[in-house]
């Protein structure tokens, strides 16, 4: 099982894909061909087209704060 030690598991924290040109989260996946396995993205802000993108994890702290606020609102009702 030494082979599988180096495989990185996907994190369960939410992520955002950013355009490498304008660094905005405006990327959409575009179909390249019928039988290809390549991810191809288009930015609606700067018209970037390519398969490279920046992936950023959302801060866990803000997510926990939002969950606490929701639970407090439910308790008040």
List the helices and strands and how they pair.
Layout: E1 15-18, E2 27-30, E3 40-43, E4 49-50, E5 54-57, H1 60-76
Antiparallel strand pairs: 1-5, 2-3, 3-4
Number of strands: 5
Shape by Cα distribution? flat
What spatial order of strands do you see in the largest sheet?
2-3-4
| Average of the residue pLDDT scores | 75
Number of helices: 1
The number of domains: 1
**Rg, nearest Å:** 18 Å
Overall description:
This protein is of the alpha+beta class. The protein has one domain. The protein has 1 helix and 5 strands; from the N terminus they run βββββα. The strands form 2 sheets. A 3-stranded antiparallel β-sheet has the order 2-3-4, with no helix packed on it. A two-stranded antiparallel ribbon has the order 1-5. Strand 3 and strand 4 form a beta hairpin. The longest helix has 17 residues, at 60-76. The protein is flat. 4% of the residues are buried. The model has no long low-confidence stretch (mean pLDDT 75).
């Amino acid at each position: 099982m030494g082979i599988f030690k180096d495989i990185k598991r996907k994190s369960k924290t939410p992520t955002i894909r950013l355009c490498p040109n304008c660094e905005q989260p405006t990327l959409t996946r575009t179909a390249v061909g019928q039988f290809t396995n390549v991810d191809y993205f288009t930015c609606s802000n700067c018209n970037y087209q390519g398969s490279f993108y920046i992936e950023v994890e959302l801060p866990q702290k803000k997510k926990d704060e939002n969950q606490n606020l929701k639970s407090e609102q439910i308790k008040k009702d």
